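REVIEWER CHECKLIST
Item 1: Sequence provided? yes
Item 2: Single chain? yes
Item 3: Sequence as submitted:
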Amino acid sequence: MAPIITLVIVLGLLVDVVVHMRSRSQDSGRLSSTQLTCPSARSAGLESLASSSPGVAVQTGRSLFFDSRLSLDGSVSCASCHEPSRAFTDGRATSVGIFGRHGKRNSPTLYNVAYQPRFFWDGRALTLEQQVQIALTGPNEMGMTERALSMRFESFSPEVRRTLGKPTLASVSAAIAAFVRMLRSSGSRVDLYLYCGERNVLSQQERAGLRLFLGKANCVRCHTIEAADVSPLGGARAFFTDFRFHDIGAGDSFDPGLADYSHLSSDVGEFKTPTLRNVALTAPYMHDGSLRTLREVVEFYDRGGGKNGQVDQAIVPLYLTHSEEDELIAFLEALTSNSQGDELAKEHAKSRRRQQ
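Item 4: Structure as written out by the authors:
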């Protein structure tokens, strides 16, 4: 991949190549649900994998996502750690659960999680339903039990009770997962530039940042925007993550990461690559929220990563100039597209006012 990308950059034909690639139909059965074409980029919607979920289940899950009665002390809901206005993160270094208990991990965005093969920073959950149930029952998260859920169920709306029938943690998790699968983000200015041929939508500084992203900074190595079976920048899987686990030496303290569940010494300190979509809204950064700003993140990589653990060999000093750092940050900020989150935040605020 790197030689091809380098060749494109050297020839100075990046935009022409991208526009040409998007003008061709990439008809692949297994990728069809993730094709990012100009119309879908413009309308800010990757195709949802929740199309097979009954609409009533999605609506029930949406209601439950904002319901603090699903926490043992009634103080937090899913939305407490995944605020729609913050691209479904919470702005804290680490999440805060019941009784004010702090977790040890930063809350990641929920956008496009329907396409993930594993969940949590350390990959402990293999399905979205499992991920939701772990959060519901975690002692530092929502702490819910089957007994507490059953006792509170009569206080839920008739629609929720009718949909779930006899409530269980599994049925509640399934409903919330159906809603979360509907959360998708595309349609950023970067998408319009890459896939719609809108040449003027990115500034000169942002275009320079894109060249750094693909070239000197080599961010694209892990924050991928292509699939193995299509040409570079084809956009078949424009998630800006490889969904894999890497040790970049981040963190203020030791954390085994993936090794906690794989029990392999080679996995110590490895965490899942986060998406860069809406990254300007999801500070602070890294698995423990130890980097406060995008500037700190870029400087971290410019130094060659951190010193914790067995740092990936690809993490090397970048020797970026200050102007190049500015360009890269400008490009990352252009990946913002939180229209779905903003809309949900407004609707939830209106619903709360009606209930008061």
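Item 5: Key structural point noted by reviewer: Strands lie at 245-246, 271-272.
Item 6: Recommendation: ____
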